[in-house]
Amino acid sequence: MSDTTITKVDSAYSPKGHDGEKYLASGIHMAMRLWENEQPAAAKEPAARPYETVGYVISGRAELHVAGQMVLLEPGNSWVVPRGAEHSYKILEPFTAVETTSPPAHVHGREDK
Protein backbone atom coordinates (compact mmCIF):
# COMPACT_ATOMS: atom_id res chain seq x y z
CA MET A 1 0.00 0.00 0.00
CA SER A 2 1.36 3.45 -0.86
CA ASP A 3 1.88 6.26 1.62
CA THR A 4 -1.07 8.65 1.56
CA THR A 5 0.32 11.10 4.12
CA ILE A 6 -0.16 14.73 3.14
CA THR A 7 2.05 17.38 4.69
CA LYS A 8 1.12 21.05 4.84
CA VAL A 9 3.63 23.62 6.05
CA ASP A 10 2.65 27.20 6.92
CA SER A 11 5.73 29.35 6.23
CA ALA A 12 4.74 31.68 9.08
CA TYR A 13 5.73 28.87 11.46
CA SER A 14 8.55 27.23 9.48
CA PRO A 15 11.84 26.53 11.19
CA LYS A 16 14.70 28.76 10.02
CA GLY A 17 18.21 27.80 9.11
CA HIS A 18 21.17 29.79 10.36
CA ASP A 19 21.36 31.66 7.02
CA GLY A 20 17.76 32.86 7.47
CA GLU A 21 16.15 30.40 5.05
CA LYS A 22 12.78 28.93 5.99
CA TYR A 23 12.37 25.20 5.65
CA LEU A 24 9.10 24.38 3.90
CA ALA A 25 7.60 21.03 2.90
CA SER A 26 10.02 18.13 2.76
CA GLY A 27 9.57 14.69 1.29
CA ILE A 28 11.76 11.64 0.99
CA HIS A 29 13.42 12.77 -2.26
CA MET A 30 13.17 16.57 -2.19
CA ALA A 31 12.73 19.54 0.12
CA MET A 32 11.75 23.20 -0.30
CA ARG A 33 13.27 26.31 1.24
CA LEU A 34 12.16 29.94 1.14
CA TRP A 35 14.65 32.79 1.10
CA GLU A 36 12.72 35.95 2.03
CA ASN A 37 13.94 39.50 1.62
CA GLU A 38 17.64 38.56 1.47
CA GLN A 39 19.59 41.81 1.54
CA PRO A 40 22.39 42.90 -0.83
CA ALA A 41 25.81 41.73 0.27
CA ALA A 42 29.16 40.60 -1.06
CA ALA A 43 29.11 37.27 -2.85
CA LYS A 44 29.12 34.28 -0.53
CA GLU A 45 32.12 31.99 -0.60
CA PRO A 46 31.85 29.33 -3.34
CA ALA A 47 30.52 25.99 -2.15
CA ALA A 48 29.71 22.63 -3.70
CA ARG A 49 26.76 20.70 -2.27
CA PRO A 50 25.89 16.99 -2.45
CA TYR A 51 22.42 17.78 -3.84
CA GLU A 52 20.84 19.37 -6.90
CA THR A 53 19.07 22.71 -6.44
CA VAL A 54 16.35 24.26 -8.59
CA GLY A 55 14.94 27.66 -7.73
CA TYR A 56 12.44 30.33 -8.75
CA VAL A 57 12.80 34.09 -8.18
CA ILE A 58 9.75 35.80 -6.68
CA SER A 59 11.27 39.27 -6.29
CA GLY A 60 14.61 41.07 -6.38
CA ARG A 61 17.79 40.38 -8.30
CA ALA A 62 20.87 38.26 -7.68
CA GLU A 63 23.87 36.89 -9.51
CA LEU A 64 24.44 33.15 -9.57
CA HIS A 65 28.06 32.21 -10.20
CA VAL A 66 28.46 28.57 -11.21
CA ALA A 67 31.06 26.68 -13.26
CA GLY A 68 32.81 29.88 -14.35
CA GLN A 69 29.56 31.49 -15.53
CA MET A 70 27.46 34.32 -14.13
CA VAL A 71 23.68 34.22 -14.51
CA LEU A 72 21.55 37.22 -13.57
CA LEU A 73 18.43 36.07 -11.67
CA GLU A 74 15.33 38.31 -11.83
CA PRO A 75 11.62 37.85 -10.99
CA GLY A 76 10.13 35.01 -13.00
CA ASN A 77 13.50 33.33 -13.64
CA SER A 78 14.27 29.81 -12.53
CA TRP A 79 17.67 28.12 -12.23
CA VAL A 80 19.47 24.84 -11.66
CA VAL A 81 22.68 24.20 -9.74
CA PRO A 82 23.84 20.64 -10.45
CA ARG A 83 24.90 18.38 -7.60
CA GLY A 84 28.54 18.96 -6.75
CA ALA A 85 28.91 22.17 -8.83
CA GLU A 86 30.93 24.88 -7.13
CA HIS A 87 28.73 27.99 -6.96
CA SER A 88 27.99 31.22 -5.10
CA TYR A 89 25.26 33.86 -5.01
CA LYS A 90 25.53 37.64 -4.82
CA ILE A 91 22.32 39.44 -3.83
CA LEU A 92 21.96 42.72 -5.79
CA GLU A 93 18.64 43.94 -4.35
CA PRO A 94 16.23 42.53 -1.73
CA PHE A 95 15.67 38.99 -2.95
CA THR A 96 12.93 36.42 -2.36
CA ALA A 97 13.08 32.96 -3.94
CA VAL A 98 11.95 29.38 -3.43
CA GLU A 99 14.41 26.52 -3.85
CA THR A 100 13.92 22.79 -4.04
CA THR A 101 16.78 20.42 -3.32
CA SER A 102 17.08 16.76 -4.22
CA PRO A 103 17.88 14.86 -2.13
CA PRO A 104 16.64 17.08 0.72
CA ALA A 105 19.30 19.60 1.73
CA HIS A 106 18.70 19.26 5.47
CA VAL A 107 19.52 15.56 5.31
CA HIS A 108 22.97 16.39 3.94
CA GLY A 109 24.07 18.90 6.55
CA ARG A 110 23.08 22.15 4.83
CA GLU A 111 23.64 23.94 8.11
CA ASP A 112 27.21 22.63 8.28
CA LYS A 113 29.43 24.94 6.27
Describe this structure in words.
With 113 residues, this protein is mainly β. Helix content is 0%, strand content 47%. The chain has a domain at 36-108: Jelly Rolls, CATH 2.60.120.10. It has no helices and six strands. Strands 1, 2, 3, 4, 5 and 6 form a six-stranded antiparallel β-sheet that branches. A hairpin with a 2-residue loop joins strand 3 (52-66) and strand 4. The protein is globular, with a radius of gyration of 14 Å.
What's the topology here?
Elements: E1 22-26, E2 31-38, E3 52-66, E4 69-73, E5 78-81, E6 87-102
Antiparallel strand pairs: 1-2, 2-6, 3-4, 3-5, 3-6
Mean pLDDT: 88
Structural class: mainly beta
- List unreliable stretches of 5+ residues: none
Q: Give the name of the CATH architecture of the domain at 36-108.
A: Sandwich
Largest β sheet strand count, sense and barrel closure: 6 strands, antiparallel
CATH superfamily of the domain at 36-108, by name, is: Jelly Rolls
Which topology of the domain at 36-108 does CATH recognise? Jelly Rolls
Specify the number of helices: 0
Radius of gyration: 14 Å
Report the end-to-end length measured between terminal Cα atoms: 39 Å
Order of helices and strands: EEEEEE
Provide the β-strand percentage band: over 45%
Please give the CATH class of the domain at 36-108: Mainly Beta
What overall geometry do the principal axes of the alpha carbons give?
globular
Helix content: under 10%
Protein traits:
113 residues, mainly beta, Jelly Rolls, six-stranded antiparallel sheet
Task: State the gist of this model.
This protein is mostly beta strands.
